[in-house]
Write a structure and sequence with these properties.
The chain is mainly alpha-helical. The chain has one domain (1-255). It is 70% helix and 0% strand. It contains 12 helices and no strands. The chain has helices spanning 2-13, 17-45, 53-74, 80-86, 89-94, 99-106, 113-129, 136-162, 171-185, 194-203, 211-218, 234-255. Helix 3 crosses helix 11 (211-218). The chain is globular. The two termini are 27 Å apart.
């Protein structure tokens, strides 16, 4: 059923091929500008937070790839507020299918594939040029880290969208954490200081998206003093985040009251 909906969405959005191609290229260019920003900063400072060029490139591309995958799969969850406002969410509850997966499938945006493919290519390049002492554990982690990052970002997409069950116009606040977390994780955590780093890196967990996995892959100890084993915990943190997001979503659905329209 979900497959049929996805195929219908892809067919409908690719009917106008020129428009679709422009949207894909535009999204790729925007992602490229985000990466270019990092290199502009690097070219001025020579290093970022005590990290060299290949390390920053690996960290940035890991974050960008993970976010692009999450945005492709669950980024359209922010449409929930429109469904709640108009009462259209009722139609999702009437079908014997998961309301969340229906929401994601119906609003799937294939134009975001370009960013994910671009992120994958750049991440592979970053792995190739980084000074990594490859072994089985690092090879597995190199594959698992972006998956864990995507699950982590996806959890924030779902949790942020779920706020619409209580506060329909919560989109901006949710984006502050989702997109703010993306920007935070694109740079070494050592660049930030004080409470800001504590909140985003530790309390919210964005340090597990790219910073700590990069340290594990290049074999560096954390300059901030985190124990070495913590560098390998991104998958566990992502699973915890996904579990909390799922619990929050179910609570939101139970709280939902139809507009009656």
């Amino acid at each position: 059923m979900y497959g049929h909906v996805l195929r219908a969405q892809i067919r409908s959005q690719t009917q106008y091929r020129t428009s679709f191609a422009v949207e894909v290229i535009g999204s790729v260019m925007l992602n490229g500008l985000d990466l270019a920003t990092v290199f502009v900063l690097f070219s001025v400072a020579g290093s970022l937070g005590g990290f060299g060029g290949t390390e920053v490139f690996l960290l940035t591309t890991l974050s960008a790839f993970a976010f692009a995958v999450a945005d492709l799969v669950v980024g359209n969850a922010d449409k929930l507020r429109d469904y709640v406002r108009t009462g259209l969410f009722d139609t999702l509850l009437l079908r014997p299918l998961s309301a969340l997966w229906q929401l994601l499938a119906v609003n799937f945006a294939p134009r975001r594939v370009g960013r994910a493919v671009q992120g994958l290519v750049l991440y592979v390049v970053a792995l190739a040029i980084a000074d990594i002492d490859w072994d089985l554990a690092r090879a597995v982690y190199a594959v698992g880290a972006p998956v864990a990052g995507a699950v982590f970002f996806g959890s924030f997409f779902i949790a942020g969208s779920t706020l619409a069950f209580w506060w329909v116009e919560s989109g901006e606040m949710a984006n502050a954490f989702t997109y703010g977390g993306r920007d935070f994780s694109a740079y070494p955590s050592t660049m930030y200081g004080g409470w800001f780093r504590t909140v985003f890196a530790s309390a919210l967990g964005f340090g597990f998206v790219a910073y700590l996995p990069t340290l594990a892959l290049v074999g560096r100890a954390d300059p901030l003093g985190a124990p070495d084993w913590l560098r390998w915990c991104s998958p566990a943190v992502a699973l915890i985040a996904a579990g909390l997001a799922a619990l929050f979503w179910r609570t939101g659905v139970r709280h939902y009251r139809s507009t009656g329209s």
